[in-house]
Amino acid sequence: MANVCNMSEIDGRSGYCKSNSTFYSKRRPAPLPANQTLDVTTFISARAHHGVTAYIDASTGRRLTFSDVWRMVESVSSSLSDFGIRKGDVVLLLSPNSIFFPIVCHSVMSLGAIITTTNPLNTNREINKQIADSKPVLAFTIPELLPKLAESNLPIVLIGSGSGKGKIVSTLEEMMRKEPNRNRVKERVTQDDTATLLYSSGTTGSSKGVISSHRNLIAMVQTVLGRFQLEDQQTFLCTVPMFHIYGLVAFATGLMASGATVVVLPKFEIQDMLSAIEMYKVTYLPLVPPILVALVNNADQIRKKYDLRSLKWALSGGAPLSKELTEGFMEKFPGVTIMQGYGLTETTGIGASTDTMEESRRYGTAGMLSSNMEARIIDPDSGKALAVNQTGELWLKGPTVMKGYFSNAEATASTLDSSGWLSTGDLCYIDEDGFIFVVDRLKELIKYKGYQVPPAELEALLLMHPEVDDCAVIPFPDKEVGQFPMAYVVRKNGSNLCEKGVMEFVAKQVAPYKRIRAVAFIESVPKNPSGKILRKNLIHLATSTSSRL
């Protein structure tokens, strides 16, 4: 297959080139810096903008100006250097959303060290598994989460006031107050060096560390800036978790270069979200579809209680929006434009988007390819690249695509080919106007409130139950949360295991978003000749049974 396509061969409507079966972005290209000796923190801090307030803590009202942020980053990075943190070292950040989250991330990355984040809801077992894999040399966390690091024996920097057991070496407050050491040796950091190590759920049940470079993050920042083109000072509300790629892209890195103000919700509660929109005159509201559903369903009460007139844009990610939800939201909140985004941890959160209401009204779409991004639609059986309006697996290529999976050459080789094409695991087609539509998933991840839940992980846990002979976990569709995990269980002979027993067994060992929320008992799990679970059969059984109830 040819790799080069002349511009004259690209169809202006779809972005498709017949000579190499590749779709090209119709967006304006995002410029990338030629200087290879550049880290993402320096790149962002050097950008000129007119912003004053960078972050506001919605719970306390505390504000950080942009000059506060960069002064604190300089102080914390200097302290980390004094602690012996060097280029290539991994530093763990275990924290809920905080105005200090970006300060820790940029302080670490400015040294050429690597930031790895984890979900505060994860269990000790899940966190220790990530620690064993990524091998951090230091951890940042809040006092309330110290017990989750008790078994790690890691040196710990406390964020916020309080105390607790652990090998505490300093506090972030002390570090931020420290005068930077101007004589410290700064190691050479290049765009190709690793900046972040975020963990992505896998179909095998084992979470994999996604290696993103400074170049990946710089390209992401440029894409974000090109998408929003913020001329006046705008205010974004941080509703999504900063440890996740969505939050990291929007709030800890991308928007810092724009001069926008970010209002941070330490913990998501819909009432707190609405109060913050009113109090801080929020203009942009990033969210996931379940929050959009809640806004539509409770619109009348919300509008009576809260003044949301400042809100101009709702940015949805995680799953394409239906016509009913899009139209319902526009009817209830007529002054707000819906924009959507599609991306993976493996693509630094970048992939496709709708950037206007007109584009969002292409119902069910994930959007058009982001700047600098290329796509192919590959037939999963033949490996042949397909054309417009043909369904196959979506492959993406561009400057935001990861370097690979950490210490996992096999997983990297099966996801990323030698030419830089990433297989997304999503069955899609691209229509004649260049819009991507997600039809199904090849990777069997369950999307619960935007969180990814691998069925294989829950199945492995269930098989450890002494009364479970076999099992399968499927995504059950739900209007409120998107999908939730449902288990089909084969009991061992003589067992009286009940639904509650199954759910409680799993709940003790996983984060809340991974919990089993429905159970059905069956005689045997349907499988193909090679032993692979036929989940589609079970999904059909579950949904058809539900509709008859």
UniProtKB/TrEMBL annotation:
UniProt GO BP: phenylpropanoid metabolic process
Domain AMP-dependent synthetase/ligase: 45-406
Keywords: ATP-binding, Ligase, Membrane, Nucleotide-binding, Phenylpropanoid metabolism, Transmembrane, Transmembrane helix
Pathway in which this enzyme or protein is active: Phytoalexin biosynthesis; 3,4',5-trihydroxystilbene biosynthesis; 3,4',5-trihydroxystilbene from trans-4-coumarate: step 1/2
Signal peptide (residue range): none
Gene Ontology MF: a single term: trans-feruloyl-CoA synthase activity
TM helices/strands, residue ranges: 243-265
Stated name of the protein: AMP-binding, conserved site-containing protein
Organism per entry: Cynara cardunculus var. scolymus (Globe artichoke)
Source species taxonomy: Eukaryota, Viridiplantae, Streptophyta, Embryophyta, Tracheophyta
